[in-house]
Amino acid sequence: MRKFLTSTVAVSAALLLALSACGDNEREGGESRFEAHTREAPQLGVTGAWCPSRAEAFRTMRALCIERGEALGLARIDWDKVAQALSAVRAI
Predict the structure, then answer these.
(1) pLDDT tens-digit readout, 33-61
(2) Cβ of 4: how many Cβ atoms within 10 Å?
(3) What's the pLDDT score for residue 1?
(4) Are 63 and 47 a contacting pair, CB within 8 Å?
(5) SS3 of 75, please?
(6) Phi, psi angle pair for 73, to nearest 5°
(7) Cα dihedral sign, 65-3-51-28
(8) Taking 90 as the threshold, does the pLDDT of residue 73 lie above it?
(9) Which pTM was predicted?
(10) Residue 76's pLDDT is what?
(11) Quick one: which of 24, 71, 80 has its CA closest to 46?
C-alpha cells in the first residue's frame, strides 16, 4: 500500500514550502515532491515533480520557481539560502 505524507514549513515570512513523500513502505526510498507558496497567496504556488530524492525534488521545484514563479514573487527568493536552511535540518 502506498503511503503519502505532507509537511509544510514556513521558510521565511514570505515563503511556505510543502514536502510530500510517498512510498510503498518505510524501508523503500519512495519519491518526494516540493511545493512553494507565498504567504500572501497560499492557494497559488509552484509544484515540482515527483523525484527519487528530496534533494532532486528541491532542485526541480527551485528551477520551476525561477522559470515560472515571477508573477508570485518566487523567482526573487534566494534559493541558495533556502537550500542551506533545508540542509541544516536534513530536509534535503
Answers:
(1) 999 988 888 788 899 999 999 999 999 99
(2) 9
(3) 57
(4) no
(5) helix
(6) 85, 5
(7) positive
(8) no
(9) 0.83
(10) 83
(11) 71
C-alpha cell, 89: 535540518
Whole-angstrom Cα distance, residue 76 to residue 51?
24
Q: Which residues of 18-47 are buried (b: 16+ CB within 10 A; e: fewer)?
A: bbbbebeeeeeebbbbbbbbbeeeeeebbe
All cell numbers assigned to 7: 509537511
* pLDDT interval class at 30 (50, 70, 90): confident
> For residues 32 and 1, what is the distance between their CA atoms, to the nearest angstrom?
16
E strand or H helix at 51: none
- The x, y and z cell numbers of residue 41, run together, are 497567496
State the average pLDDT for the chain. 85
Residues in the chain: 92
CA-wise closest residue to 14 among 88, 66, 80, 73: 73
* SS3 at position 13: coil
CA 24, CA 37: separation in Å to the nearest integer? 28
